[in-house]
Design goal:
The complex is a heterodimer of chains A (766) and B (116). By secondary structure, chain A is mainly β. Helix content of chain A is 12%, strand content 31%. In chain A, the strands form six sheets. Chain A has a 16-stranded antiparallel beta sheet that branches. In chain A, strands 26, 29, 30, 32, 37, 38, 39, 40, 41, 42 and 43 form an eleven-stranded mixed beta sheet that branches. Chain A is elongated, with a radius of gyration of 29 Å. With 116 residues, chain B is of the alpha+beta class. Chain B has one domain (9-94). In chain B, 32% of the residues lie in helices and 18% in strands. A three-stranded antiparallel beta sheet of chain B has the order 1-2-3, with helices on one face. Chain B is globular and about 40 Å long. The chains are: A mainly beta (766), B alpha+beta (116). The interface between A and B is large, with 40 and 39 residues. Strand 27 (401-402) of chain A pairs parallel with strand 1 (43-49) of chain B. The complex binds fe (ii) ion (FE2). Residues 494, 496, 522, 633 of chain A line the site of fe (ii) ion.
Amino acid sequence: MKQIVGYCDRWSAQPGDTIRVMVSTYGPKRFQAGLVRVICGDDRPLGPGFKEQPVAVPWQGEYPGRTQTNPTGSYVRVPASDSLTRISSFTVQTWVFATTPHQGRQALIAKWDRARSEGFALSIGADGASEIRVGDGAGAVASLSSGVPLLAERWYRLTASYDAASGRLALEQCPQFKLPGQASRVESRTGPMHALGACSLPLTMAALPDPTGDRWASDYFNGKLDSPRLAAHALDAASLADALSSGQPPSELLVGWWDFALDMRGDGVTDRSGYGNHGETINLPSRACKGWNWDGSQHDWRVAPHQYGAIHFHDDDLSDAGWSPDITFTVPQTWRSAVYAIKLEAGDDVTYLPLFVRPPADTATSPLALLASTATYLAYANSRITLHVDFAEIRRGHVLAYDAEEAFLQEHGEIGLSTYDTHSDGSGVRYSSRLRPILTTGLRTRVWNFNADTHLIAWLEHLGLAFDVITDEDLEREGLALLSRYRTVITGTHPEYWSTKMWSALAAYQQTSGRFMYLGGNGFYWRAAFHPTRAGVLEIRRCGAAAKYWDEEPGEYHLAFTGELGGLWRRCGQPPQTLVGIGTRATGFDRSSYYRFTAAANDARAAFMLEGISTQERLGDFGSIGGGASGLEIDAADFALGTPPHALIIASSEQHSPDMMFAPEEILFQHSMMSGEDNPQVRADVVFYETVGGGAVFAVGSIAWCASLAHDDYRNNVARLMANVLRRFLSPEPFVFRPGAEWREPPHASRAIPASVRLPGAAGGS
Amino acid sequence: MYRIDPDRIDLVEAFKSQPFGPHAAEVKRMLNRLRWGSMQDRLVLVCVERHRRWVLGRLSGRRDRPIELDRSAQFTNLAQAEWEIFKRRWQQHTGRSLAGRVTEPAYDSSLGAARR
Ligand SMILES: [Fe+2]
C-alpha cells in the first residue's frame, strides 16, 4: 500500500531553476529523499530490468513525514468590498442547472459566514429545493424554501429578496421549460435584520467560504450557474429581469452583474455592475458552457459568447493541491540534461517524482532530443479508468489486478481526476493540472506512458548515445526555436495529446530539415490546449467519433482556453498521417503481435535501416508487453488521410487478436469484420519518408514497440532497425528523395491536405 | 443472447488450460459473459507485494471507498487467481459448482507476466 506520495512544482527544469517538492506520508513519521537518474523504470520480472543511477545531492537524507491533504471543488470568490458589505436589503438572482440536486445542501450565491450564521445564502437545500437564508450573526436567522425540489439538468431562474425594513423574505423558482408543479413563489416575514453583508468574508458562488479565511470551503455545488446578479434593494424577480433585459445595468440597483461570458479563457470573473466586484474561479470549473439561453444555433462560443455564459462547477475539481513544500532545491549547472526522479521512501514504500532536466537555457548539448510526452502524462494523470469503467476487465482480457497506486487512487479522491474520468455528477473531466500528486508517472508503476518511455531511455543508454530531454510544455512555450536546435527529435511510446502550437512547431521543424522519429502509437490524436496563464494545466474536449471514455456535451466542442474546435486532430482536418505518415487504426490490450516486412523494405531508400536484418524475418515477434512489438494502440498509413505519397511502408503487423479492434473513428458503419482476427486492415505500419531540406520521418505505429527493444539483451531486429535509423538520422548527410515512378496520387486527390505540408520534389521543396 | 451451458465443461477445461488465452471463440464468449457487468461487487485483485502477491478484493462501485479485501484469499500466481475468480463467477452465473467436476490446475508463476 502507498505510504508516501508527493509532487514537484515543475516537471521540466533547467539549471538554475528552483524546485519545490511537496510530500505526504500515510503512517510513517519519517521519510528518505534522494535523487536518481532514470534508466529503466519497468520492474516487472519479464521486463528489461529496473535500473536507476543515484545522484548525490546536498538535500538527500531523512525528513519528518506528515500527512498533507487539500480540498477539492470549484467555486467563484469575489473579495469583500464596500458595496458588498453595505448590503442590508437585497435581491439575488441566478440561473441554475443543477446536476446533483439531491446531494445535500449546495450553495449557489452567498455572502455567508457559516460559523456565525451571518449574511445571506441562496442555496439548494437538503431536500433539493431552492432555499434562501439570512442571518444577522447575533442569533436571528430566517430561511425560506421553495418547497419544490429542482429537477436535475433543467434550467431554473431563482430570485430571492429581503427587505430589511419590513423583514419580508421572498423566493421565486421559475423553470425555463414549464413543467407542471415546478414553479414556486413563497414569502415570509421575519424581524428586520440589517447589515447582512457586513462580515468580511468574500461573496462566493457554488460554495460557502471558510470562515477562518482558510481554503476549506463547504457546500460545493454540482452544476451550472449563469448570469448571477445582486441588487442592494428588495426587488421582485420581474423588475430585476426587466432592468437587465435593457442591456444596461441600472447602476444604483445592481452591485453585482457577473457575466461569465467574459474572460472565458482564464480564471477571471467580470462584474459589469460598475462597482468592480470582480472575482476569480477557484479550482478550474468548466468555462465556455452552454447557458440558459443557448438556442442550438451556434456551436462555437466565440461566435455567440452570450449563449455560453454558464460555468459548470464540480465538487471534485482541482487545480492546485497547494501542499506545503518539504524540500526546496536549485538545479545545479553541473547536471546534464536527462530524466531524473526524486526518490521518496517511507516504511516499505517508494515513490518517484519525475523531473525532466533540459540543457541550460537556449542551448543544446546533443544533436538528439527526446521529447517527453508531458501533455499525455498530464491527460492521463491519476486515471481511474480501471476503477470506474465497467468494461475495463473485458478490454484488458483478464481480471483487474490493481497496483498500490490504483488502490490509493480509489481511496484518495482529493488528489483529483484525470481527463479519462467523469466528475461525480457524470460530466466529463476536461482539465488536468500537474500541481498535485500524480500516481501514474512513477517508476516501478504500471508500464504505460512515462514508465513505458523509460524502455527507450534504457535502450539509448545501452547504445551509449547522449541525448537532451525536452518536454511538451517547453515545446508549447518555445515552439520551433526549441526543436531547431536538434538534428533529430524522438518521441516516446504515446505522444497522444498535441496543442496547436506544438503541432505547428513540429510541422515547421519537418519543413526545415528536421528529422523526426515517432516511436509509439496513438500519437497526435487529440487536440489539447494549455491554460493561457497557469503552467501545467491542460484542457481537452472529447467530442466526435474517437476512442474515448466519455462523450462531450453537444454544443461544447470548442476549447475554453483557445476557442479552437476540440476533438481529434483528424476531425479538425489535420490527420496525424499528414504529420508522421501514420495514425491510429486500432486498440487492443490483451496481447501483441509481430510485423512482416513488405516489398517496400527492399527499396534502395530503405537499405540503410535494414542493414543486418533479413526481410524474411518476422519483425518484433517478441517483447515484454503482450509478446510482440505491435500492440496496445496501433497506427497505420492511410494515403487518403494524408500519408505522403512517397512514404515507404516497410513493415506491417498481422495476426492480431480478436480484442484488437478498429478505433471508432475508423468505422463508418458497423459490420462483423472489426477485429485483428478477421480484418487485415487492423495493423500497424512502420513508415519512412524523406522531407524537404534533407530531413526525414520514421514512425513505428505501436505503443508496445519500445517494450521489444531489450529482448535478448538488445540483440534483436527491433533494436537493430532502430539503431540503424537513429544513427543515420544523426548523421549530417542529407536525405534526398527524387520523385520517380513511386510518386503516387492519393486515392482521394480532392481531400485537402493542410497547406503547411510541403513535400520534397513538390514546388517549393528541395 | 449467448448463454453459458453448465454442462459445457469442455469450455471450462479449455479456459483452465490457458487462462490468459489465446481463447477459442466460444471460450471467449463464455469469459466475456462472466466479465460483463457493473463495477459494484466486482471481484478484483489488489497487489500487496509488488509482482509477487495479490489479495482478492471486491469493489463497492462507489468512489473514495477503500477496496474491500478478503485476506483469506491470497495468491502468488496470477493464473491461479484468474482461475479462482472464474470458478466463483461461473458458479454464481450458472448456479452450479465446479467442485469435483474439474481437477485443480497447477500453474507456472510466469504465466501472464507479459502484461503491463
Ligand atoms: Fe492513448
